[in-house]
Amino acid sequence: MMEDANHRRTRKSVTVLTVEASLFSANDSQAAANRARFDACGILAINLISSPGSGKTALLEATIKALADILRIGVIEGDIETARDAERIRAQGAPVVQLTTGGACHLDAVMVARGFEQLSAEAGDQPLDILFIENVGNLVCPASFDLGEHRRVVLVSVPEGPDKPAKYPAAFVGSQLFIISKTDLLPYFDFAPHEAAASAKCHNPAMEVFELSAKTGDGMAMWLTWLRREVAARRAEREIP
Ligand SMILES: Nc1nc2c(ncn2[C@@H]2O[C@H](COP(=O)(O)OP(=O)(O)O)[C@@H](O)[C@H]2O)c(=O)[nH]1
Ligand SMILES: [Mg+2]
Fold it and tell me: For the whole model, what pTM was predicted?
């Protein structure tokens, strides 16, 4: 009787592992196809991840406003419900597509491929320089899904506290840039940016860290310079035969 129960447990865990492995490998193949498509179009793709409310959309609004005359930006918005973020981006004059997952806690590469088709139709003839993909607000699941992006950027806002890199390491291991957002609120919270940065660098020593406020504009220059440098690097890579 006991042996039977153990056997069933073992078989069940084998089944779960197989399904998970094939889910990730299907996602990885589509992500590679997305990246090849972005490369062919000369687009820098950036996956933004954070908890809900860290300021991803506010950062995009400020970024589009600041770079409107220099770079053409398109956005794929991911949320469980509503097109509110897409409306905010559209108000800035950028082409945007809203994906609603209907409950799923992250975007996957297939959703992004479909979103990019729609976005390309919306953007028309003018090629994009940057595609931002604002992931569903969550520091857990989005960390496991490659969307075909070139760069992954993780945000933690001052009111969330500096312990997030320690608690959610996967989101930091897989990202190249860590943005500490809402720094205008530092006087009101016990948040030491250097502590959060050190904790993130424990998991990912190569990670860059910027502190900024999309509301006041403080620190935005570093981020905008980083974006322009990344776009230039991508263009240079394309020009090398
Ligand atoms: N004080 C302050 N509030 C901000 C800042 N950025 C965003 N917010 C506010 O934080 C809330 C969530 O922002 P939102 O961009 O929707 O976050 P998202 O869920 O990560 O996209 C909104 O009420 C914003 O006005 C900032 O730099 N400073
Ligand atoms: Mg948002």
Answer: 0.91
